[in-house]
Write a structure and sequence with these properties.
It is built from nine helices and four strands. The chain is α+β, with helices and mostly antiparallel strands.
């Protein structure tokens, strides 16, 4: 059986959210599983690559403000982020890490729900209380979640996951790795689909 497609995402990336929607559809068509893996752009982009956050980058920042809502419209996905769309990702990332260690499918559904709440429903997902509220809709005990994400075990596990993404060469979100090939960006999903259809080129 073919290995799962590795899907690397950061909760703060709108492109990452769209990538999660697209990769699940493509994988289902090709009978491939998707392994959701959280990463942190604040580590890969700022600390490792030494770059500014994209919204703060001259020329790219203004383009981003035009491109993101246009991309959502293209895919027919509501775009309604809170404020300027910024998000502190650690509470959600740690929650996902904790959940994945217990139930990967539940962790995926949690990530999808958090992304939808932030990017489509205008709910700021930057706080433990906010992500715990989303967790409650999936029968995740809010008190247990908020306690878990403050533990050293969960914090250390997230650090390991982030380092793993860097070791694999992941520098942006979303990134998809399949059959040893790395594809970066939600706009590369058509290439992922073609690769799976043809067996590569």
């Amino acid at each position: 059986m073919s290995e799962p497609i590795e899907y690397y995402f950061d909760f703060l990336s709108p492109y990452g959210y769209l990538g999660g929607l697209g990769i699940e559809e493509i994988a289902a068509r090709h009978n491939r599983a998707v392994d959701w893996r959280v990463m942190l752009l604040g580590i890969s982009v700022i600390k490792v690559m030494g770059l500014k956050p994209l919204p703060e980058t001259p020329l790219k920042g203004p383009y981003l403000r035009e491109d993101v809502p246009r991309f959502f419209r293209l895919l027919g996905v509501p775009y309604n982020p809170p404020g300027g769309g910024q998000m502190a990702p650690l509470p959600a990332a740690r929650s996902f890490t904790w959940l994945k260690g217990r139930d990967p499918d539940l962790a995926k559904r949690f990530a999808q729900a958090v992304g939808r709440a932030h990017w489509c429903e205008g709910r700021d997902m930057s706080t433990p209380a906010a992500v715990a509220e989303i967790g409650a809709t999936l029968d995740i005990d809010p008190a247990e979640l908020t306690a878990a994400i403050e533990t050293d075990d969960v914090k250390d596990a997230l650090k390991r996951h982030v380092q793993h993404s860097i070791d694999k060469g992941v520098f942006g979100a979303p990134t998809f790795i399949l059959d040893g090939e790395l594809f970066w960006g939600a706009d590369r999903l058509y290439q992922v689909d073609r690769w799976l259809e043809t067996g590569g080129w």
